[in-house]
UniProtKB/TrEMBL annotation:
Species lineage: Eukaryota, Metazoa, Ecdysozoa, Nematoda, Chromadorea
Domain Tyrosine specific protein phosphatases span(s) in chain numbering: 200-285
Name used for this protein in its record: Tyrosine-protein phosphatase domain-containing protein
Domain Tyrosine-protein phosphatase intervals: 40-294
Native organism: Caenorhabditis latens
GO molecular function, one term: protein tyrosine phosphatase activity
PANTHER family reported for this sequence: RECEPTOR-TYPE TYROSINE-PROTEIN PHOSPHATASE, TYROSINE-PROTEIN PHOSPHATASE 1
Superkingdom field: Eukaryota
């Protein structure tokens, strides 16, 4: 199985080599389909084990141990509970996230009750509202909307080309207590995943605000819902899964954690619990490209090594869309060149991609400039 590694150069080598082989072998779609099939098998097996052990399905019906439904007891309703999202936990970085799909106006009071009770400091939205039926928050400064017993007021709005940051206050009817949450809306993600550079700027903004960190990271617990950042998308759950994996991979790199850095296995685990997470091949490609982009930004300088282009071409011939071949490409470490130093020029030539950065200095503190096409 794939070994754990440490260090930006080794991670970048592993990810870029695998991407080059997948691209050369035209295996993006077969690998994605393989992951989706395996996730469904894992989910079915988990449900079977719950039934065999007479365990309640409602408590763990998402199928994996690091994901649980988020419930509230609706105020002023006869129903006993309402599911308002999924809590997913990553112990490697001591981080919890609440994932949520579309919020419609007629049920927005359930969403805001969750925000009121769980007290997150940030809501990250990955789409623009399609219509007024999906506008669950006041869009403009000094605007106010009422959803059931909750009054939501926009007290501040800052807009850039790629995202909008709003400060929202939530007041419960009859209470003088206010809860303030920062709502960050990505504007660069349209019908197709965005390019790496504009989305990277959005990620930098999230990192500068610590938007995807637990407010109570010192008291981390895998099922702790309080203060976990909320990631929401009106187009389904696919984009939320993309952001989670990108953020986890970036945090692992930034914290210098020894890890396998296997995007496909992380997708498999997430889709086992949440089948709608990462819904298309394009989203899979987007994750790989964005993680490599973020990893490149951490690398201090280019290190030129031996020519890998022929090696990539030869390796690509050994892979096809059979199940054994796909599993080997996803999990095996045998295709990784032991001790090889990544040659960026050759790899990018192998996948018909131009280099994204160039070194403008010789020291370790040298900076990089973006190459213009």
């Amino acid at each position: 199985m794939m070994s754990e590694i440490l260090g930006v150069e080794k991670v970048l080598e592993r990810l870029t080599l695998k991407r080059a082989i997948i691209e050369k072998s035209n295996l993006w779609e077969p690998i994605y389909d393989h992951i989706a099939t395996e996730a469904e098998k894992n989910r079915a097996q988990s449900c079977y084990e719950l039934i065999a052990n007479n365990e309640p399905m409602a408590a763990t019906d998402v199928g994996i141990s690091n994901m649980t439904p988020v419930f509230i007891t609706p105020i002023g309703c006869q129903v006993q509970y309402e599911m308002t999202g999924y809590l997913v936990s990553y112990p490697e970085i001591r981080q919890n996230y609440i994932l949520r799909d579309c919020v419609f106006v007629e049920r927005a009071h359930f969403f805001w009750q969750m925000i009121w009770e769980k007290e997150p400091l940030f809501i990250v939205m990955l789409t623009t509202p399609v219509n007024k039926a999906q506008l669950y928050f006041p869009a403009n400064e000094k605007e106010r909307l009422i959803f059931g017993p909750f009054t939501i007021t926009c007290t501040k709005r800052d807009a850039t080309r790629g995202y909008i940051t709003r400060t929202l206050t939530i007041r419960y009817k009859g209470s003088e207590v206010l809860h303030t949450v920062t709502h960050i809306q990505c504007m660069s993600w349209g019908f197709l995943p965005p390019d790496a550079e504009p989305f990277g700027q959005f990620l930098d903004h999230l990192n500068n605000l610590n938007a995807l960190w637990n407010a109570s990271i010192g008291s981390y617990f895998p099922t702790w819902e309080m203060h976990a950042p909320v990631i929401q998308c009106n187009s389904g759950m696919g984009r939320t899964g993309c952001l989670v994996i990108i953020n986890v991979m970036s945090r692992l790199l930034g914290d210098r954690v020894r890890h396998k850095y296997n995007i496909e296995k992380m997708m498999l685990k997430l889709k086992t619990g949440l089948p709608r997470a990462i819904e298309t091949v394009d989203e899979y490609k987007f994750i790989v490209n964005q993680v490599i982009w973020e990893t490149e930004k951490l690398k201090p300088e280019f290190v030129l090594g031996r020519d890998h282009m022929q090696m990539v071409t030869n390796m690509a011939r050994t892979y096809d869309d059979s199940e054994n071949s796909l599993e080997k490409l996803i999990s095996s470490k045998k295709w990784i060149p032991t001790g090889a130093i990544l040659d960026y020029k050759c790899f990018r030539k192998a996948v018909n991609m131009g280099p994204q950065y160039k070194n403008v200095g010789k020291s370790k503190t040298s900076t990089y400039t973006r190459l213009m096409s």
